[in-house]
Amino acid sequence: MRRFRILSIVGIFLWVLAAFSFCLAFDKVKFVAISDPHISIPQQKGVSDGFKLGLKTVMLTENVVAEINKIPDLNFVLLAGDLTQDAEPWNIDELRRILDGLKVPYFVVLGNHDLSLVPHEKKDQPVSLSKYTVAGAFIGRSGGMVPGMTYYSHEVAKDLVLIGLDTSRAQVFVPEAGLNDFGGRVDEGQMRWLEGVLKKNQKKTIIVLTHHSLVPWHDGDVKNHNYWRWFWVDNAGDVRGLLKKYGVRLVFSGHRHISTRYQNVDDIFHFITPAISTYPMRYTVYEVTPTTLSWEVKDIPAPQEVWDLAKKNFLANKWWRGPDHPETPEGDRKYLEFYESPGTMKGKVKVK
């Protein structure tokens, strides 16, 4: 009888200890994901409204910040890269001014437009900065960066770890493409750092934020239609393998300029984030628990004439059309459907 009583007391103690430990971990965290503001102050030479609404980027980013500030119980904001037009110091200052208006902490990662471009005969050397200088403008609460690095990890809630990766690499001009190589890679040094962070936090929930995707989103991304292979990381398989090894379930990226949706590849949920600067101009509100992730996609408020212009320029652009998006009524329908993704405006997945 005494033995039974002792075992009961031990059992109750262990149950209380487990319950107490569980209570210490995060219960529910709400955050917003935005991407690709491509901030270009209107006074800058050469800024115009094309597929990217360059002249409207400041207004659109200010509007999304105002909307985010209305969301109750929000914990933080993620910004998945392409912060500026081309790493111009005045655009960095402008974006920092706007983002500092957020009422919650925000975390950024670098995109292919956030580092100095390689000059070539068709374009003058732009006044752009080293990516280490760009990252340095977003150290601490204002961006999440840490001194001397372009990637980081932070425990943003109890047992919830955010890892921000740097997928940017030298943007060399490719003559046959007529544009700069906008691809990405996670270099060897960062891979070693990543494994160390994953190993240290493998019993926690981990969120990975990156600019370039770790998976393709269209058949053209695989077949390199219009150099679309540059939309996802060169060594994506290696990075996915490392994340799978340590049980990571959630990855958020930008760069692709399509509306929110996800893929489950090797038990990892890859979510894509819509761009602020291009049609359909959206942001996504997420709620994550230790077992689920739910989301809702929202349009960024803008005057009707801005929406009309964004859609007009979107339909007129040929480069962003997939091989299955010819300039026909049916092709336009498929083109719009691919970028708008009307079936994924809300959703919920089990992540554990």
Would you write up a description of this structure?
The protein is an alpha/beta fold. It has a single domain, classed as Metallo-dependent phosphatases (Purple Acid Phosphatase, chain A, domain 2, 4-Layer Sandwich). It is built from nine helices and 15 strands. It has helices at 2-24, 57-68, 89-99, 131-136, 188-200, 219-223, 236-245, 304-316, 329-340, and strands at residues 29-34, 76-79, 106-108, 142-143, 152-157, 160-164, 173-174, 179-180, 205-209, 250-253, 261-265, 268-272, 282-288, 292-299, 346-350. The strands form three sheets. It has a seven-stranded mixed sheet, with no helix packed on it. A six-stranded mixed sheet has the order 5-6-9-10-12-11, covered by helices on one side. It is globular, with a radius of gyration of 22 Å.
Give the helices and strands, then pairings.
Layout: H1 2-24, E1 29-34, H2 57-68, E2 76-79, H3 89-99, E3 106-108, H4 131-136, E4 142-143, E5 152-157, E6 160-164, E7 173-174, E8 179-180, H5 188-200, E9 205-209, H6 219-223, H7 236-245, E10 250-253, E11 261-265, E12 268-272, E13 282-288, E14 292-299, H8 304-316, H9 329-340, E15 346-350
Parallel strand pairs: 1-2, 2-3, 3-4, 6-9, 9-10, 10-12
Antiparallel strand pairs: 1-13, 5-6, 7-8, 11-12, 13-14, 14-15
